[in-house]
Amino acid sequence: MSIPRYTDLDTVHDHVWDALETAAEDPGHPYRQLTFGTVHEETPDLRTVVLRTADAGARALQFHSDRRSRKVAALRENDRIAWHAWDTESLEQIRLYGTATVHVDDDVAAALWESQSPGSLSVYPRPTAPGTPIDEPDDKLDPAVKSDPITDDDVAGGRQYFVAIRTVIDRVEWLHLHPDGHYRARFEYASDEGEATWVVP
Ligand SMILES: Cc1cc2nc3c(=O)[nH]c(=O)nc-3n(C[C@H](O)[C@H](O)[C@H](O)COP(=O)(O)O)c2cc1C
Predict the structure, then answer these.
(1) Is 69 contained in some domain?
(2) By residue range, what is the domain housing residue 183?
(3) Is 31 contained in some domain?
(4) What is the rounded (10 degree) CA torsion for 61, 63, 44, 170?
(5) Is 49 in the pocket of ligand 1 (CB under 6 A)?
(6) What is the pLDDT of residue 191?
(7) Ligand 1: centre distance to CA 49 (Å)
(8) For residue 80, is it within any domain?
């Protein structure tokens, strides 16, 4: 399969956001599982999360998490975030930068909770907080979520620990390791019209 070569900045920009919107709907997409970066006590931290919604118009990406987790503590201290993905087939790297808001009991959290299948919420009914030291390897999940089918009732107790994390992107860095050469572009949204430029890779 030949790899398309992009020579127009608007096309690159649309392509990146189309891919993110597709990934939020398609569990098999390379951008479905993204690396999410935060800063905690002046130290960078990374972890993989599942992209749950992407909205090109609002430049927003969302995932869900446990409100007791370290990343939530980090975001309460510093709302600057970064996302990263490397697509080994299309040979593109994306890096996105922005800010995050943590949604506990508002409409954003309710909408994300309600849109998810019980299976994807099965990690939340966990009485012991993530990151707690334990004597033996154990997932500490509620037994009800360990046998199929997982129902809404099985996961309802996890709502108290669920958060939606909504990020709004203010800069996109795109790098393409195309067989013809390496190409890089940057998009910034600080001004209303935004700024787009090719960059030396
Ligand atoms: C493939 C994959 C998908 C994951 N998806 C999520 C997710 O959507 N939300 C989440 O909070 N953690 C997810 N995790 C777990 C995180 O990577 C991380 O281990 C956990 O959230 C604790 O991170 P923290 O200590 O930085 O808060 C996922 C891990 C993997 C490997």
Answers:
(1) yes
(2) 9-126+139-199
(3) yes
(4) 10
(5) yes
(6) 75
(7) 5
(8) yes
Atom of ligand 1 nearest to the CA of 131: 25
Give the pLDDT of residue 193: 74
Q: What is the pLDDT of residues 82-106, one digit of tens each?
A: 999 999 999 999 999 999 999 999 9
State residue 31's pLDDT score: 98
**Which of 33, 48, 71 maximizes ligand 1 atoms within 8 Å of its Cβ, making it the mutation to test the pocket?**
48
- Residue nearest to ligand 1 atom 14, measured at CA: 49
Flag whether 3 is in a domain: no
Please work out whether the CB of residue 101 comes within 6 Å of at least one atom of ligand 1. Answer: no
Cβ neighbors of 41 (< 8 A, separation 6 or more) are 77
Q: How far is the CA of 76 from the CAs of 81, 99, 102, 109, 173, in angstroms?
A: 12, 11, 8, 16, 25
Residue 47: CATH number of its domain: 2.30.110.10
> How many domains is the chain partitioned into structurally?
1
What per-residue confidence (pLDDT) applies to 192?
74
| Cβ of residue 47 lying under 6 Å from some atom of ligand 1 | yes
**194 close to 7: Cβ distance less than 8 angstroms:** no
By three-state DSSP, how is residue 170 classified? Answer: strand
